[in-house]
Amino acid sequence: MTEYSVISDVEEFRAACAVLAAGTGPVAVDVERASGFRYSQRAYLVQVFRRDAGVFLFDPPPLGDFAPLQQAIGDEEWVFHAASQDLPSLRELDLLPSRIFDTELAARLLGHDRVGLAAVVEQTLGITLKKEHSAADWSTRPLPPAWLDYAALDVLHLVDVRDVLAAELEEQHKTQFAAEEFTATLARLPKPPREDPWRRLSGLHQVRGARNLAVARELWRAREAYAQEQDVSPGRLVPDRSLVAAVMANPQSKQALAALKDFQGRASRSQLDRWWQAIAAGRESTELPRERVPSDALPPPRAWADRNPEADARLKAARPVVEGVAEELGMPTENLLTPEFLRRVAWEPRGGTAEEIAHALAELGARPWQIEHTAQKIADAFVEAAQVPDSADTPAS
């Protein structure tokens, strides 16, 4: 049975931090949230393991200030599995690592077929983990013992996994690749808020007309405000499909909205006044949203042949080349180079030399190791694409 300490008392917390500070080597860290249950992405459990210290499960709500933990381990390497998922919640607690090792990302760079935590632990250590509580509501109190056991195991083996993967990276000459990826993950800033977040409503593409879009917008805003007030995931109150169904049905009274079979969710009737007021506000709004929003998104590649045939030729020439490099390096293509980056430089190249392509890739966010392995290859492919005559211009034999 896994030994661990559950800490929810401030004095015990300070004592645990002292024990962790006296431990040795990297620190394994994991976070459990209540995604899909709560409005926020706050941490409801922070798990920490360090050799010669043990496993500690910290309960954030009663502890509040995590400064003692930051002071105890802030200068050490923190080991995560999928760090990008946990770092935002840790930053809310002012827990900020100075450097990280991401076992999921390392496994991807090494070409492992499966990169989930249980799979990586089994591949590296031969230990089988059960993942039955990964989607649990971690805001539950008290947390069941089986959940705590699961949470402890998430960090117990992580440092050992890190050591095995670090050795594999060294053997495959990928240590520098990983270091650059870890640094980029740690430095990545949160995405700025969307200008019109309500446009992310699933099924909104079915809604036609600026007035109906205004109704959808107000329903989304009303649900968002109530979800934040109740600290409940918005979709658990009224699913997206129900909001869209209400817009499409165009009910003429509150009673008609209540009678709408497709308007479902646990707050669909208990907050009926709220939803009807939102519909009325959308219908009366003088600020009508645009039906089409300008976007810098590229067209789907299947449309390139008609929209930009030169770009289509460049992409078709470069994509298999990049895939070939990824295969040689033994990693997924998307880890060698983000597909969107290749599409961007193919769609509108700012010069065709390797140096110019390298500069464009760097501006997009590619890491130096990625540029080193792809820029020249892409430049050569673009030259080849330019030399291939268009089939329409080729004389018939």
Description:
- Mean pLDDT is 94; it is low at 391-397.
- The longest helix has 21 residues, at 210-230.
- The chain has helices spanning 10-21, 60-63, 67-73, 83-92, 103-109, 117-125, 145-156, 158-171, 175-187, 210-230, 234-237, 240-249, 254-258, 272-284, 304-307, 309-329, 333-336, 339-347, 354-364, 368-387; strands at residues 5-7, 24-32, 45-51, 54-58, 77-80, 99-102.
- The N and C termini lie far apart (77 Å).
- The protein is flat.
- Helix content is 53%, strand content 8%.
- The chain is an alpha/beta fold.
- Strands 1-4-3-2-5-6 form a 6-stranded mixed sheet, sandwiched between helices.
- Helix 10 (210-230) runs antiparallel to helix 12 (240-249) and helix 16 crosses helix 20 (368-387).
- It folds into 3 domains: 5-187, Ribonuclease H-like superfamily/Ribonuclease H (Nucleotidyltransferase, domain 5, 2-Layer Sandwich), CATH 3.30.420; 198-284, Orthogonal Bundle (DNA polymerase, domain 1); 301-393, DNA polymerase, domain 1 (Orthogonal Bundle).
